[in-house]
Amino acid sequence: MTSSVGPTVRRRRLGQELRRLRQEKGMTAEEVAEELMVSQSKISRLENGRRSISQRDVRDLCRTYRVEDKRLVESLMQMAKDSRQQGWWNAFGDVPYSVYIGFENDAASLRVFESQVVPGLLQTPQYAEAVIGGAIPEGTAEQLAQRVQVRMRRQERITDPLSPLRLWAVVDESALRRLVGDSRVMAEQLEYLIRMSHEPHVTVQALPFDLGSHPGMSGQFSILEFSDESDTSVVYLEGVTSDLYLEKLSDVQSYSMMYEHLRAQALNVDQTREFIAKVAQEHARNHESGK
Q: Which of 15, 74, 116, 181 could be 47's S-S partner, Cβ–Cβ 3.0 to 4.6 Å?
């Protein structure tokens, strides 16, 4: 059960194993919580990997489930110990979407649809600063700088020479035209987006306004997939005060089908580069004219 993956995925795997043991015992989360004199929500968070799992938690749960295989218990205890190791993002303090970063850090591929902004993994520092500054207008200069640093650090998954993240991005025209920062920032951002689209593991497709309505009109979403078959795919929906992670097979399949429709409806790769280049030129002309 050991692996080179990060703490987020380790917690998820451990939680899945603990859920399996509970179900084999025929117990509900409520019954387990009552026996251990803890809240039912704690049991749920342990099983879905959203909460750090201590070795004591594992020991108590294994006793409750009457697990007699000592090697299994020892393996689960080691997983709990490993899952409490900190990821690189912990060095930046309280990052609000740290769970997502953990998934992204260990994912093999990422499919993302963006309707409002250029995907975070493909943003320039200037564009990222303007996006984050607009999203948290009451944030301090220190908080803004920290968020930008985290975003830039995340992008190392794209440039990793050994195992780069396979990224497929469908981007709505509104994200390409929305004036984030100023016209110069936008022109440079779109030129960078074109350059990144030439990377063999990065695919970018634009979805122009004149293509009409599409399945992504309900908003942004991401689908993360992992190289280990035991790690099921995750759909990520970003919220204002909390995020949503969907892991049920039916949910993942629904969003995957939506994404296939988006990819089929969007411009192809070459058409996308031409389209983005035209929009970038418009931003550049606006900058030259002082708009």
A: 15
